[in-house]
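User: I'm curious whether this sequence folds into something compact or stays loose and floppy. Could you predict its structure so I can see for myself?
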Amino acid sequence: MTTRWQPTHALLRAALASVTFAGAAVALGRSDLLVIAVPLLVWTVAAVVRRPAAVPQARDGLLHDSVREGEGTVLRTVLHDSGGVEHAVVRVARHRWLLWRPSTGVAGVTAGHSRDELRVDVPVSSRRWGSRRVGEGLVAATSPWAAYRWGPHALHGHTLTTLPVPGRFDTKAPGPHPIGLVGTHPSRRVGGGTELAGIRPFQPGDRLRRLHWPVSLRTGTLYVTSTLAEEDSSILLVVDAGVSVGGCGGLDEPAGSLDIAVRAAGAVAEHYLHRGDRVALRVLGSTERNAVHTSTGRRHLLRILDTLARIVPGEKRSADPSRIHFGVSGGTVVIMLSPMLSDQAVTATLTLARQGLSVIVVDTLPDDAYLAEKDRRVLLAWRMRLLEREALLSRVQLSGTPVVVWRGPGTLDEVLRRLGRRPSLPRMAGR
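Assistant: Here's the prediction. I'll summarize afterward.
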């Protein structure tokens, strides 16, 4: 690599050939050799006279540092002081989850002599969530007549964060434990809201717009309508990143357990945040950022998706799940998204359940995990691992924690309804 203009092999060959043919023509007295040497000599002299004086300076960058899965951006390389550049070429390293246009990752552009700035754009699309380096490669340029070359100059790349596309999720079940002040979930107490609670006699302090005139005229006494207060729920999403089973699928490929968990967490967070609820996130395993505190709003959703995109699969052996402080208050609904293949996830689930929180385990193990494996020993080991997993799930279910398989919309409907009815069910009391 060089940062200065260097003569190309074409210029060296032309100079050597013209001198050789001219010398042979004079020595041997052959005019035909002189005819061959003259064009090469003229081209060599003209190229040397027009040698570029200014050395280009390369600057590269991404138009967007963050995109969604399937979306694209542009890697733009700008050559400053490019008055002597006729043609510039950029070659970027290809990646499994990146699609370049052209697919080879090589793009070039031709410019005139009077331009002081030359741009080379290479569109790129990211097919899977995550944070990765994009744009590592080389850039080179040639002068007019391809006599001199500059570069190749190294492009060190930039970090592109690909936010996961939230999966399809919707639930018609209300929040089981609304604890906030505002929201869309009807609570068990009477207050300002839109859902009718009943009709009662008028009391001092009631608003006149609450008067129910049909009953008041029929009875001769003032009656008013009472409504249920609308409150918001608190949701804690716990993503198990300690193990990833199955493929690492992009948008058009089979998804692994971690892909399902990340996209499901994004879908649940988006659903509840759009309804005005409060959502928090905690990641179990090796990751750069593993916690997002409880909050609401559109910016909070982007913060959660950005944290999900930075997940690095791998289990932290030094972390004790029973001592993790999740920082949630009573009434919070905990949704654990995990394939339930590690003691860490089971311990964290049981710890949260013992704290009196409503915990729901969402099984993210794909149905086709390891079905394509041909080795009998691997299949036997996988069957034994599944038996251990059944034992772990039995421990979770015996603690009163429901386990559901992620199926998209409606996955949590029945479980949330049962959790909402739990306070009214009879309980056994010890003597």
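Summary: Residues 96 and 180 are 45 Å apart (CA to CA). The chain has a mean pLDDT of 81.
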